[in-house]
Amino acid sequence: MPGPGRPRTGAKPKSIRKTLSRIMGYIFRQKTRFILIILFVFIGSCANVAGTYFIKPLINGCIVPLIGKPVTAQALLPFLKMILLMGGIYLIGVLATFLYTQLMIKVANGTLNAVRTDLFNRLQDLPISYFDTHTHGELMSRFTSDVDTLREAISMGVTQLLSSAITVVGTFVIMLVLSPILTVLIVLMLVVMMLIIKKIGGNSAAYFKKQQKAIGAANGYIEELIEGQKVVKVFSHEDEVKKEFGVLNNNLRQAATNANFYANVLMPIMGNLTYVNYAMTATAGAALVITGRMDIGSIASFLQYTRTFSQPITQISQQFNVILAALAGAERIFEVIDAEPETDEGYVTLVNAKTDADGSLTETSERTGLWAWKHPHGDGTTTYTQLNGDVRFNDVTFSYDDKKTVLHDVSLYAKPGQEIAFVGSTGAGKTTITNLINRFYDVNEGKITYDGINIKKIKKDDLRRSLAMVLQDTHLFTGTVRENIRYGKLDATDEEVIAAAKLANADYFIRHLPQGYDTMLTGDGSNLSQGQRQLLAIARAAVANPPVLILDEATSSIDTRTEALIEKGMDKLMNGRTVFVIAHRLSTVHNADAIMVLENGEIIERGSHGDLIQEHGKYYQLYTGQFELD
């Protein structure tokens, strides 16, 4: 995973055509509004094109006849009528522009709402392995900078492209009617403009993709360093991280500079070409008027169309950097949306059950406190197995990357109500075992059974509902203390929340907080001590009341006094449950029913504390301090 001192890579760009097609697919979800936008854009563009054409009859029919003659009210009447007609046409164009602009704002926000929803929902469906290989900052940049560039392009670029296309077509048709000769001259200049746009635009597109990658890398690094500020300061690495960020920031600066240079240079180039085109057209038009092959009104109207014809191309060049940045950002968003979701072929579910008179289990909609695995079979029958918490590993071999084997042919069992402890150095495979129980990862060889059922047959949500974990690194959400405890069981009553807090011996310190259970926690519980945060995590597990409990160094952040206070509460929490404990403090596993000593992914010793001490093996050496755990 990317981190300080490690190389970073960006998302691989996809087809621009495919990306644009997908963006339009989101826009078309609001079909009615988009059709109205197209209609109003058409009306507005046609009004502007038509209004320009009236310059010809205005000059030829109303102005030229008055040259050298006395001006009277009667003579000005046709002129005023023509002006009013032109004003009415332009007013319709202004009204249509206002309407499609307002509609486009709604369509843009609706589209971004759908994109953000799909992006967030996909994150919930991704496997843990995806988050292990992507930084938080890199993923957050999809919601921030990438979505923002997409918003700007949709709200402005779509209507701009539609309006420009209609304007260009309408203008071209009328220009052909006014003067085919001058139209050929305009088309030749247009070809030159398109060649320039293709050349410069291609370079700009490449650098905008590099810019989006550089933004993701920089954001990821910033995110990591904000989270790890204490570590940076403890080891006095401020200068080193400044240098590393300087490299990332410089890469971003170079990519952004090149991208915007090529994009922004288009505007003055296109603007100057427009002036050149106008001058050439005026010169050729004057020659046609002098030779009598064109009237003054037609040349005046045509010159205005020359401006109108090149203006959409200039506008596109001005928006080019926005469009390219949006496409690059959209590619990165769609990369996450297209990521392979976590698969689940399980069909065994967890249901509420009750015991009939004959002792058999049946499903019920009522909460009975008794749970069962509902197991449908191929012959149409369904069996119910009581949820007890019997977990067994049978010849399990596992590798995270299919290169280095983490677990080698591991077999173990935990009967209902037993406490199983795992000890061993870092990298021995302790946490991997708990990851496999939760099906964060699936085994490569062998199988894991839960109450006699292969866990691959159990739906992942149902499997995880039957488990609770207390992790070494606690995470608390923004919300009250009560809401954070209730996260273990969303429908838990206040009484159940308080009971769980008392079980974890967290009730005392909670009641001494400013607002007690209603105290607001922010910044991952930064206003609490590490030990208090751990106690809340234990209470969160307690309120879930699961048959299987996984404790990953659950007391590692609690001082000796606090550990003694919660020992009885932990005993109550573990009573009657199958418990897996990952421990570095060997003093915490004295009472475990079985202790598994792992080394290099293999169980080299197993037994109770007393048995392992008598064996004088690795556990004895660890316990007596001849070796220390990493």
Automatic annotation (TrEMBL):
* InterPro entries according to UniProt: AAA+_ATPase (IPR003593), ABC1_TM_dom (IPR011527), ABC1_TM_sf (IPR036640), ABC_transporter-like_ATP-bd (IPR003439), ABC_transporter-like_CS (IPR017871), P-loop_NTPase (IPR027417), Type_1_exporter (IPR039421)
Which Gene3D superfamilies does its entry note? ABC transporter type 1, transmembrane domain, P-loop containing nucleotide triphosphate hydrolases
Which segments constitute the ABC transporter domain?
A: 391-625
- Which stretches make up the ABC transmembrane type-1 domain? 35-325
| Membrane topology per record | Multi-pass membrane protein
- Pfam families to which the protein is assigned, alphabetical: ABC_membrane, ABC_tran
SUPFAM superfamilies linked to this entry: ABC transporter transmembrane region, P-loop containing nucleoside triphosphate hydrolases
Residues making up the signal peptide according to the UniProt record = none
Alphabetical list of CDD domains matching this protein: ABC_6TM_Tm288_like, ABCC_Glucan_exporter_like
User: What domain of life does the native source organism fall in?
Assistant: Bacteria
Spell out where the chain crosses the membrane: 34-55, 75-100, 165-197
Q: Where in the cell?
A: Cell membrane
Keyword annotations for this protein? ATP-binding, Membrane, Nucleotide-binding, Transmembrane, Transmembrane helix
- Kindly list the GO molecular function terms attached to this UniProt entry: ATP binding
- Name the record gives this protein: ABC transporter ATP-binding protein
